[in-house]
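User: Hey, quick favor. My workstation is busy. Could you predict this chain's structure for me?
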Amino acid sequence: MQQNKLTARAKMLFLAVMTLVAVVLLQWQPGPVVAQDDNGVQIATGSSWQGASFPVEDFRGYSSPFGYRTSPTGQPTREFHSGLDIAAPMGSYIRNWWSGKVVEVVNDDRCGVGLVVESGYWDHIYCHMLGDVNSASGQKYLIDREGGVLIRDGQYLPAGARIGRVGMSGRATDPHLHWGMRYNGEWYDPALVLRAMYGEQSQVSQNQ
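Assistant: No problem, here it is.
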């Protein structure tokens, strides 16, 4: 019992430290980038988080949190869910959370069509997108002709850039973006990042 309490305290301390680390690291990123929609309306602003963008347009809610959950395919087992599922209508545009480099164009049975973007020690992962994955000259690329999206492996993406659209590729039962985050190789709850982003934004707004 005592060991379980110590383990729970250690996890809470780890999450608190990681949130602080995230805020400090993102303060070091160059140049503020503010994501805007087609009408010039700001989607994500902030102070030390001012370069970050909320990853989905036409947001409808969170359909599955980070952590262990019952299998969505009906299997009688619990499984680790490595990201946050963000519900949006089919075809809604997805925006890049933070400026970085595409290190993988994904096409598999689980993630479906997706991207992995590297931003310093952070990897942000986007799954269940519309489009196809092809290759030319040994380089993979994601193409969504209807959405006007073409993203290549190795490409640099600014924060807030449209990088794809919400779909149901891979293992998905409804339209949503699976948004995963790794820090220094360890999975991290995207909801904690969002809380830090918008908590700071609210504080900045109140001080204006």
